């Protein structure tokens, strides 16, 4: 038995959120389980759903290792399934295996640095399935901390695009860590990529990393830029982590403008060209707005990592995992703005900052 | 050569719409073409795109056989492909074959009543492909006028649902002619159906036709009714002809509530249950609003008849067509509120009325 602190998130039906470091006894691992002493875990947007989404951080009650705050009513209602049920936080991270079950795979990892996806990565210790751990070899825990969510997601986009017969994709909020990975993967795989960013610095960053097509949504001629990039690449599939507002709509309308320009005869129903956008995040929690301006040949769909992985066969999964490990310092490298301890991640300054999910300003938790 | 009047719709780039009956010479049919003397043609919502959508009918200039009106700027822009290009109007109808090409199929139809899909059904005559004509036998032209769009669309919904592995579907605006057909088909095929209507009379109408599940969107407990009907039927696929506003959103959220109630463990990403809505019309031209309240396991997609038919193999198509002909007086019967001549369909009273696309108040044009 090992004792350590881990972060717990509890939401009550009346809308009070408590984030608290709690002492917990971790049982000795059995079978193919390993106990990992966590050393580094990124704060991804998907982790923030349990920590900051809809939370009144400005007026919260902060004390060492504890935050109590109010959550906006619609988001309280939307999370009815977790009312009163304590949730662990932190999808992924890396650390050192300090105990192992007697299974062969677990024993083989004893003493090694590994990346893992325990679901309670913001913790001093985590029990993980040896089969899901990635041995990091010479890589540091910081280098390996983000070796699951972003790498598998960006590889998943390219795999999804290929599977559905596409030669190019659009990516919104493209200067993120994930977006930079996607930019490198697309260059390696010869997949066309239209990067949509909202600042000139972000455009420069991606162009410096070899991006051929970058359009800036803050420019006055944004839609004209987007139409030209779609025409140049043939991108009729896109991935949008913003979700709310009009980004998905703008992409579909721009795709249709490219397709309609090729029509020889007018069709009141729009072009035959299938147009598709996947929403894989909700950086903007306002509703998605879809205008009737691109006929009926379109699809908007949610995209999530786990269902995608479940749809892959084993050779594909093993291939993706090997590609990630061999590219941790290059294709799949992540960068972090700040490093915080478990206590520091619960301070007002830190929370107000990482809750913004600003592009390229990711936090790393070092328990 | 035969001469007759047909309706022409012309939109200019500066937003002026002209609907006018024009004298036209119809050439003698060749090969497997037939010339049909049109006797009855329905005004479907899909026809109104070229006639009333976004059109200022209240302030239009009406003269016998001619209407000149202004179109709202966003809809002028959305139809750039037809600026200055005269369009014929009227997808489908029925009439008598008065001339035939020398092809065998065409000759066999000579003198017969047929249903056809000429694209210029609001006309005294129409040239049609014999292969696309349905011989009506003992049926009148009025009985056969709507034997393509609504029957094939409602059969297409059930075929789509089966193909995607569903046992039940939701249908919005369910008291329409199309909705009543769908209600009959679903009962024949043992496919679960949740009918969504907005008036008590419409609910009573469908219940009188054997519908097991009818929910009224005007009731205060609409969402609770919908959730219960989804739970009872297992309908996680829906078809929405409204398009704009929140109907599709409400259906997806209700599906998720049913799926979430079965979860044993909380998931921040929502349930694994795939939820899908097809938008097949735009009775409401305002934007579709999608709120972030049903995770990421959802899809919203356009649905159109012609791409669907193109996706079917020949035996399926022939089977659907035979089913329609044998059920023209029963399953696929249509009803009409008013009958108008070509001149009458261009009067202010008629246009202001059918432009509303009120449920169950369809017009029939009798050239």
Automatic annotation (TrEMBL), chains A, B:
<keyword id="KW-0560">Oxidoreductase</keyword>
<keyword id="KW-0521">NADP</keyword>
<dbReference type="InterPro" id="IPR036291">
    <property type="entry name" value="NAD(P)-bd_dom_sf"/>
</dbReference>
<feature type="domain" description="Enoyl reductase (ER)">
    <location>
        <begin position="15"/>
        <end position="325"/>
    </location>
</feature>
<dbReference type="Pfam" id="PF08240">
    <property type="entry name" value="ADH_N"/>
</dbReference>
<dbReference type="InterPro" id="IPR011032">
    <property type="entry name" value="GroES-like_sf"/>
</dbReference>
<dbReference type="InterPro" id="IPR013154">
    <property type="entry name" value="ADH-like_N"/>
</dbReference>
<dbReference type="InterPro" id="IPR020843">
    <property type="entry name" value="ER"/>
</dbReference>
<protein>
    <submittedName>
        <fullName>Zinc-binding dehydrogenase</fullName>
    </submittedName>
</protein>
């Amino acid at each position: 038995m090992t004792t350590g602190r881990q972060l717990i998130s509890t939401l009550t039906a009346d809308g009070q959120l408590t984030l608290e470091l709690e002492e917990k006894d971790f049982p000795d691992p059995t079978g193919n389980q390993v106990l990992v002493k966590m050393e580094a875990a990124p704060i991804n947007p998907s982790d923030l759903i349990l920590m900051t989404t809809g939370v009144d951080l400005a007026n919260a009650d902060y004390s060492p290792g504890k935050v109590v705050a109010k959550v906006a009513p619609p988001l309280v209602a939307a999370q009815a399934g977790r009312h009163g049920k304590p949730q662990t936080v932190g999808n992924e991270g890396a650390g050192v295996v300090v105990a192992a079950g007697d299974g062969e795979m677990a024993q083989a990892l004893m003493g090694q640095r590994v990346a893992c996806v325990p679901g309670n990565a913001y913790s001093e210790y985590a029990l993980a399935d040896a089969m899901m751990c990635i041995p990091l070899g010479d890589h540091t825990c910081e280098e390996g901390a983000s070796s699951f969510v972003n790498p598998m997601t960006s590889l998943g986009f390219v795999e999804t695009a290929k599977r559905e017969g596409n030669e190019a994709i659009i990516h919104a909020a493209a200067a993120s860590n994930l977006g930079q990975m996607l930019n490198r993967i697309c260059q390696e795989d010869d997949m066309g990529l239209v990067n949509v960013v909202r600042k000139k610095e972000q455009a420069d960053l991606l162009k410096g990393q070899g991006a051929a097509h970058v359009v800036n949504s803050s420019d006055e001629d944004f839609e004209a830029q987007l139409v030209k990039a779609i025409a140049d690449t043939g991108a009729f599939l896109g991935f949008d982590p913003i979700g709310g507002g009009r980004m998905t709509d703008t992409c579909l309308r721009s795709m249709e403008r490219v397709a309609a320009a090729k029509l020889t005869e007018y069709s009141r129903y729009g072009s035959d060209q299938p147009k598709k956008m996947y929403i894989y995040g909700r950086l903007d929690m306002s509703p998605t707005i879809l205008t009737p301006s691109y006929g009926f040949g379109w699809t908007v769909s949610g995209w999530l990592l786990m269902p995608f992985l479940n749809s892959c066969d084993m050779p594909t999964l093993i291939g993706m995992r090997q590609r990630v490990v061999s590219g941790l310092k290059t294709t799949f490298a992540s960068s972090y703005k700040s490093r915080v301890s478990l206590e520091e991640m619960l301070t007002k300054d830190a929370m107000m900052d990482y809750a913004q999910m600003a592009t390229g300003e990711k936090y790393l938790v070092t328990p």
